[in-house]
Design brief:
CATH architecture of the largest domain: Orthogonal Bundle
Mean pLDDT: 83
Helix content: 40-55%
Distance between the termini: 50 Å
Number of strands: 4
CATH class of the largest domain: Mainly Alpha
Shape: elongated
Structural class: alpha/beta
Number of domains: 2
């Protein structure tokens, strides 16, 4: 098989895409690295070109860093116009980098909220009751369990159903307005999927209830 050689620019872009796809943390680290290199480059250029001979290298770096992190109007008294031009470049770069960082943070928070709403996080409970499946009988079952748990200081019912988590919680609240000391936790997933079953902590549950679905193969589904 003949090996095809790709241009260096395509290989760099491909490596960058793979790195970015690992998540917001990696992208943030890349952004911090690029920001640091940008600030250091402008600082060294200002020092080498003597854009402001009155300031030392550490002072210039500190001014550039603060201007990049908190872009403010540049005071014309800080130095001659070449130095002001360098500060303007730092200001524009800082606005861009801060905007990208805010966008990354916002997307990461939104993704986390959506993940919680989808009900794909693992339940950490002890001695809880797990109900696998979802049908019309589940409301009666929850009501009976709530009554049975009235003498318990704290009880929990965990439901794993092939339905949206928010929809399940909404229907439970509409049909059962109060659950007393019993907390009802819903998770979205398939009761016959081993990965989804790990969400409800079966190994620490005191009891597991499997609902029989409607259909001709209900028994095989339960088994």
């Amino acid at each position: 098989m003949q090996t095809k050689k790709h241009p260096l620019s395509q290989r760099i872009r491909y490596a960058f895409d793979k790195t970015i796809s690992r998540g917001p943390l990696v992208f943030t680290l890349w952004l911090a690295l690029v920001s640091a290199l940008f600030i250091i480059s402008v600082t060294l250029l200002s020092q080498v070109a003597h854009l402001n001979p009155d300031l030392s290298l550490p002072v210039i770096f500190w001014d550039m860093l603060l201007q990049a992190l908190a872009p403010n109007p540049v005071d014309i008294s800080v130095g001659p116009w070449p130095f002001l031009l360098a500060m303007l470049v730092i200001t524009l770069g800082g606005i861009f980098m801060v905007s990208v960082f805010i966008g990354i943070t916002t997307n990461a928070i939104d993704d986390k909220i959506q993940s919680l709403r989808r009900g794909v996080s693992k339940v950490i409970e002890q001695n809880h009751t797990v109900i696998l499946g979802w049908d019309e009988h589940i409301f009666t079952m929850i009501s009976e369990l709530v009554i049975a748990n009235e003498n318990q200081p704290k009880a929990c019912i965990v439901i794993l159903g092939a339905k949206d988590k928010v929809e399940m919680e909404t229907e439970i609240r509409e049909r059962i307005p109060t659950t007393g000391r019993t907390e009802v936790v819903c998770r979205s997933g398939s009761p016959i999927d081993m990965i989804d079953l790990q969400l409800v902590s079966l190994d620490t549950a005191k009891s597991i209830i499997i609902l029989s679905p409607d259909g001709d193969d209900a028994d095989s589904y339960v088994i």
